[in-house]
Amino acid sequence: MLAPLRPDHRELLAARETGRSLPAPFYVSPEWFQHDVDEVFSKQWLFVAAEAEIPEPGDFVTVNFGTQSVIVIRADDNTVRAHHNVCRHRGARLITEPRGATGTIVCTYHSWTYDADGHLTYADAQDSGFDRKCFTLRSVHVRTIAGLVFICLADEAPTDIDEVAEIVEPYLAPHNLAQAKVAKQTDIVENGNWKLTMENNRECYHCNGHPELLNVFFPIWGYSSTDTVPDRLAPVFNRYRISTAELTEVWDRYGLPHRNIFQLDTRPTGFHIEREAMDLAGESFTLDGSLACAKLLTDDLPERKLGRVSMHLQPNMWLHITSDHGLLFSVIPIAPDKTLVRTTWLVHRDAVEGVDYDLNRLTNVWEITNQQDADFVALAHQGISSPAYLPGPYGPSEVLVEAFVNWYITTLRTNMGVAAAEPGTAPMDMGSHMAGKAAAS
Fold first, then answer.
1. Global pTM?
2. Which domain of life does the protein's organism represent (predicted)?
């Protein structure tokens, strides 16, 4: 049952002040956490896996948040399916493992058995009028985009996912993620609200706390000209402009799209994507910027130095892709003060560990960075939990944070029927995008 919207919560939602962090209840209140589960994570497209995690028919992963559990499985026809992880007999959870492979989905309670498409194939000791076709697993909307798997739990999913796919696929497709393999996957539980995790990701104002990452990562997000760049970043910004100019010639030569497309808070499935230069050798996320994997993802492109594709998608993912590997991040809320961050490293399917890549070299920079980010999120949650906390202002480089918070507030207002209190800040019209059911693919 959906949690009711308390009058004081309705007022907070209506009165959110643009350009400032959210009031404390949005981060620490159990009721707000339930609103987030019910109105955001249960109604939006969520990134849940790479196709590389389920390369063969019968391979599956399970995705859990709140009381929800979903089976994402590759069917015999090689398509990806998603089903609620609930037996149609008496409701037992079907699969308890986080990942694996199976020929059939068997309920351990009474042995009801389903195929990967969700059809009930066996149910013992039923009466003569029993029709197995009436007890197919409840399906979940699923959409694959260039090797990435997204699901939506709503009866009617936001239909703009097709528009988003059309825009982002040309950026992702040259890196052949659907033909990659998982080199490593890690889970870290951050001691903070999921929105703090996303806000932390959406800015580089804090990036002095990432010395390893800053070897190759230009910390210039949010700055559009040298007029607004702090003096300490002026040399970095100059290197970034020179590297970008050099790489633009390479990108254009190979027909690689690189324009910065920023639609994070102007549509239901908010996203941002661009191709950017990297510092030092400019090839990969290593301490010196040189390749981490000798076998490139970009089979048909001989260039090692392609910078990185950067993509953010609301509400729970971001990624970075270089010529030699992909980095995928997904965020799942666990509790008001607990958030699961999953990182997946992808390499070429034929790359051999110890021959083409050293696993520690491949993962070291981001494993260190992930722990640093977890520490920052914990500090933020601790401070916001204090009665002394008041919402603070976002600076010029925190434009993606404002976009995330604006998207979040607009989504809640739209789904919960709350109008903005301030003139001129009414929610964007999402109705046309919410009108139809998204087709599974």
1. 0.93
2. Bacteria
